[in-house]
Design a protein that fits this description.
InterPro entries: PurS (IPR003850), PurS-like_sf (IPR036604). This protein is of the alpha+beta class. The chain has helices spanning 17-28, 53-64; strands at residues 2-10, 41-47, 70-76.
Length: 77
């Protein structure tokens, strides 16, 4: 078995309201110097050794990410 991580983030040109809420709250909580936050999703998958990269990419693109507004990256650990 192998562990695979799929990181999904909003595309740069897409407004990230959750990230903006976080960046707005940080100074009120005493954290200065943060100018931008982008919030995404992280998926950890346990996969068999016979699962190839093309299958993982297909899972990420068709099931885990909305490719209209999100980018994704698959990393084998």
């Amino acid at each position: 078995m192998a562990r695979v991580v799929v990181d999904v983030m909003p595309k740069a040109e897409i407004l990230d309201p959750q990230g903006q809420a976080i960046v707005g709250a940080l100074p009120r909580l005493g954290f200065a110097g943060i100018s931008d936050v982008r919030q995404g999703k992280r998926f950890e998958l346990e996969v068999g050794d016979d699962v190839d990269d093309a299958t993982l990419e297909s899972i990420a693109e068709t099931f885990l990410a909305n490719t209209v507004i999100e980018e994704w990256k698959v990393t084998r650990l």
